[in-house]
């Protein structure tokens, strides 16, 4: 059984320029695309979603300034709302999906993952269940609490669970060059020149936007595991990615 890990960006499922504003139609459309694939496939699937406007503005207000338990609670509660919407939509579409909250299953040290409970995720996969994780605020040995992005969760799980297909759907056609064209492939070597064209996010974003995403995925590429960044806001693209088509930007070792 091969493992597929898909991140759906908060830029796709929320209105990132607002606060706590979900795009329910997009959530439902993506759930349908995943459900259609899942009935035809033996692959195990882990989903991770970004926090979008349910996490970035809240973390900026309550988490990044220093430890405050109430701020952790408010930020986590907010992103958990978005996670519940995802879970409702996936289950309605016929996917057996269950939530896994990083606040309750991970530990950080200076933002780096030092503990991650995998037992429940593995058991869900064995039972044909799709675990759904998300960007979250997580306890951190050095900082008290810190943001753990979906973009960091994906490569971590891909590496420790030996995933064979990894992708992140965002609201752009891939990583774009200075002319706005999609860069077909980025490697650690080509990144040296390309890096200057990649910025953070156009909206409130505490996890580095596109530059953060590419940097996280390049670390995974260095250990030999490729991934893709593609546009999940375009109808049918999640499906194309799941079926293994050449979508967006490939992040690879060579
Ligand atoms: N060179 C680039 N190519 C593509 N996008 C870029 C580039 N430089 C900056 N960006 C910005 O990065 C954004 C995507 O990152 P962002 O973090 O906002 O989305 P996301 O990761 O899908 O959402 P979330 O962090 O909520 O999960 C794009 O909408 C774009 O504005
Ligand atoms: Mg992001």
Question: Gyration radius, to the nearest Å?
Answer: 17 Å
Listing every helix as H and every strand as E from the N terminus to the C terminus, the arrangement reads EHHEHHEHEEHEEEHEEHHEHE
Structural class from helices and strands? alpha/beta
Inertia-based shape = globular
Main-sheet strand order equals 3-6-2-1-9-11-12-10
Q: Helical residue percent? A: 25-40%
The CATH homologous superfamily is called Acetylglutamate kinase-like
Strand content bin: 15-25%
How many domains, as an integer? 1
How many helices in DSSP terms? 10
CATH class: Alpha Beta
Distance between the termini: 26 Å
Structure summary, number of beta strands: 12
Q: Which architecture per CATH?
A: 3-Layer(aba) Sandwich
State the major sheet: 8 strands, mixed
Would you mind describing this structure in some detail?
The protein is of the alpha/beta class and 254 residues long. It has one domain (3-170, 226-246): Acetylglutamate kinase-like (Carbamate kinase). Helix content is 40%, strand content 22%. The protein has ten helices and twelve strands. The protein has an eight-stranded mixed β-sheet with strand order 3-6-2-1-9-11-12-10, with helices on both faces. Strand 7 (136-140) and strand 8 form a beta hairpin. Helix 3 runs antiparallel to helix 4 and helix 7 packs parallel to helix 9 (209-222). The radius of gyration is 17 Å and the shape is globular. The two termini are 26 Å apart. Magnesium ion binds next to helix 9.
